[in-house]
Amino acid sequence: IPPSPWPDPTALAALQARERERFLAAHPTSRALAERCAAHYLYGVPLHWMRDWPNPVTLFVRAAHGAALTCVDGHAYVDFCLGDTGAMFGHSPAPVAQAVAAQAAQGLTCMLPAEAAARVGERLAQRFGLPYWQLAMTASDANRFVLRWARAITDRPQVLVFDGCYHGAVDDTLVDRDPATGATVRRRSVLGGVHDHHAFTRVIPFNDLDALDAALADGQVAALLAEPALTNFGLVPPAPGFWEAAQALCRRHGTLLVLDETHTLSSGVGGYARTHALSPDMWIAGKAVAGGVPCAVYGFTAEVAARMRNAKDAAPEGHSGIGTTLTANALALAALEAALEHLHTPASYAAMARAADALEAGLNARLHHRQLPWTVTRLGARMELQFMPRTPRNADDVRQHAQAALEASLHLFLLNRGVLLTPFHGMMLCSPATGDDHVARLLAAFDEWLDALGR
Ligand code: PMP
């Protein structure tokens, strides 16, 4: 007789039904706002993703400070989602809030660089190690522009990404790998797609050097665009030596190595590439880079800069297809300067690591004590609870172990006990403001959840 599955699906569904009721009862003001919003917003929210949470009605926020937020019903939450990394350095960090307030009275946007631009350029180079920079408003924009530059300067049509990647609302990268044929296919969830992905994007499994070599061999790939670790399809770290070998393969095949560090900025000061001595040709960060104010940056080597100038100078006058009107506005520059000076610091990262150490140890102790065949995978200040006995190697590995109902149960149960996790997966991020009391609260709620599941 095979062992009965744990947790029992019926018991899990019953628990989820109780938690939904509990949430509804505790949030009358959110419910009222949801009703009003339903009249004027698609799905009742200003961005439809804001309904992609496991709670039965939208949670409306009154204020967010440091590692905590308060909802409109007055409940306090410890935030391990942190705006899916936008607030990685804590909500409304004081230096950024002050810089934004000061700049707000001095002009918001002029389509001309503010005085701070020179200082910001110097700080970007110093912090992230690349000499040349451009700005964008969002990481999606930055990735889109970088791909344009990469194709322009290499005169190659293809880009290469890893299966399970997410680089924002970028047509080229909203693709999956057909497991049967290895072909590139449009991600089935994407709306209104018309791109011929096969002609322009290749997809290979993460951590697969043979596949990488094969994909680059015909000299048609302008850039490998990658996160140093997959963070958007579960947390999948690179195998030891993977990036050193991948970087060498890109060099050999004349393909630009482009690292999107929008999430892996949480790895350590300056991001993953800096802390692991990688040398990408181009490098991208958005979300938290300016402390949560809309802003993204991309940096590149002197050689790439020269090739970019050549490509631009050779093109006819007119729209480059790169940039948006509000990009590098005075508010964004002010926030970026404050963030580079006060947030991207060893002290911030030491505080993040302290909290992450405590959280990782606490979770592992519980998995061990309760004999749960699960894994905590860690990358700097970020970690993920994975319902599988080992760290995954690639996206297929994650797909095979997905447990959607269990995940939704964990999220809603914790939310009802004042702890916010990143929706879509079990990601937990620690900010410099995350303290022992916050970690203890998550661990206590996790214990309570496991008790409720009879484990
Ligand atoms: N790159 C990565 C690695 C991301 O995780 C995301 C968003 N999750 C983006 C780019 C896009 O960021 P945005 O939605 O701010 O444009």
Would you give an account of this structure?
This protein has helices at residues 9-26, 28-38, 94-104, 117-128, 139-154, 197-200, 209-216, 242-253, 272-275, 302-314, 330-342, 346-369, 395-400, 404-415, 436-452, and strands at residues 61-65, 68-71, 76-79, 132-136, 158-162, 175-177, 184-186, 201-204, 221-226, 256-260, 282-285, 296-300, 375-379, 382-386, 419-420, 427-429. By secondary structure, it is α/β, with parallel strands linked by helices. The strands form 4 sheets. It has a 7-stranded mixed beta sheet, sandwiched between helices. The protein has a 4-stranded mixed beta sheet with strand order 1-2-3-15. The chain is globular and about 65 Å long. It starts with 8 loop residues before the first helix and ends with a helix. The model has no long low-confidence stretch (mean pLDDT 97). Bound molecules: 4'-deoxy-4'-aminopyridoxal-5'-phosphate.
Q: Tally the helices.
A: 15
Share of helix, binned: 25-40%
Query: Bound compounds, please?
Result: 4'-deoxy-4'-aminopyridoxal-5'-phosphate
Coarse shape: globular
CATH superfamily of the domain at 95-342: Type I PLP-dependent aspartate aminotransferase-like (Major domain)
Q: Could you name the CATH class of the domain at 95-342?
A: Alpha Beta
CATH architecture of the domain at 95-342: 3-Layer(aba) Sandwich
Distance between the termini: 21 Å
Ranges where pLDDT stays below 50 over 5 or more residues in a row are none
Radius of gyration, rounded? 22 Å
Cofactor: pyridoxal 5'-phosphate
Pfam families: Aminotran_3
Family: Belongs to the class-III pyridoxal-phosphate-dependent aminotransferase family.
Keywords: Isomerase, Pyridoxal phosphate
